[in-house]
């Protein structure tokens, strides 16, 4: 924790002014301080813009997929890849780099948000509290990001520190902070999200910024995780009712699921399904571009010119996802929208080797610039935009402008259906069925007339596959159910002759439901090795 303090203090003077085109694409400023800066909405928006981007870079790089999808079993093919192995095998150690990446990014995001919250409060005091609506909005936006960060921390690590003001950690000995109970971490997240809901507008002034209903929707997700079904249903219904009323046309399901994940324009511009996403720009490269393509794209798609990059296929869809009995049903259109397999073709994906459009070809029995031969003979299609072209920039080092969806309207619909079901064995509630079937029907599937927990969990699995979230759906079922789900998953791969090398992972203890606190943190803060204590007295 201590090694992040200097960075967090620096956050006070490193934010920039946003231009009207994109709140990430901005000119820099020199030495802003509370006295001479944050005098208008543009300056505040420039500061909050970074909370959607660079602070999450280390987590999004590989940990995002490792935690949500490798643990969840929706991706595989990573045996022998040291960066992913421990997640693939459920043999995660406190020294693993991706554990540290997750911890550091979440606390970096939470810390920068906390610094901004305090900075904007100080500025309000300097201005005497008059004409400060733009600062109130900035505070609400920062509290949303901090709330999400602590929600992710609570789900991922369980008991964890809460740092309301990181500047307090600069005091002698103050960086020795304890772990607080997970319930307190999640309560802290809910308080931030409620404050965000109270202070954010219904409609964002710029595409991609969070709104009142993004905060309410995220609260619904936290309540569902806590099994507080009454509050989860109530919050989700507020979002759904808004989408049917004043928000009709502003909020709802995107008609083109595939484009939402393969076109940065469709994903970023007036995407009514997006409630909260991380925002990336290809031009920012390693400082803020989306690098998922580097790890997930097939080599023959992005290695030949005009991109000239790399696609390592380090993570690929698992056989558990590809099997119609456990993953995408035969009639489920999301398979074709989310996965590339033999014969897949896109006319717009043109490179030197595929002048009439890219065709996914596994017949070469090895990967080169013409053929692809992964362990499951497939690749993830979500978040892959194809080769570099005028309307879809992809840098030679593989960065794109695709966002990373954290909360979609589809999630709110399925949250509502599950919350109405609650602990019952099944439900035929009309509202729950309507919400569920909107998501189900978009995928070309026939409406259900009753719902069970397994129906909803399966729908979440195929709807949000490769979006870094399914592990938490498994985890929140409790150890016994999670153990059963994981044991049933096929995580193996095919050899060169097409023979399956089966692998079934094993959960041995409830402790494996959470990541360990990084050893580097416990070495500097031994209190983190002690039992958790109460944050709220």
UniProtKB/TrEMBL annotation:
**Keyword Zinc found:** no
Q: Where is the RagB/SusD domain?
A: 305-528
Pfam families this protein is in? SusD-like_3, SusD_RagB
Is this entry keyworded Plastid?
no
Keywords in UniProt for this one? Cell outer membrane, Membrane, Signal
Q: Which domain of life is it from?
A: Bacteria
Q: What is this protein called?
A: RagB/SusD family nutrient uptake outer membrane protein
- Which organism is this protein's natural source? Mucilaginibacter rigui
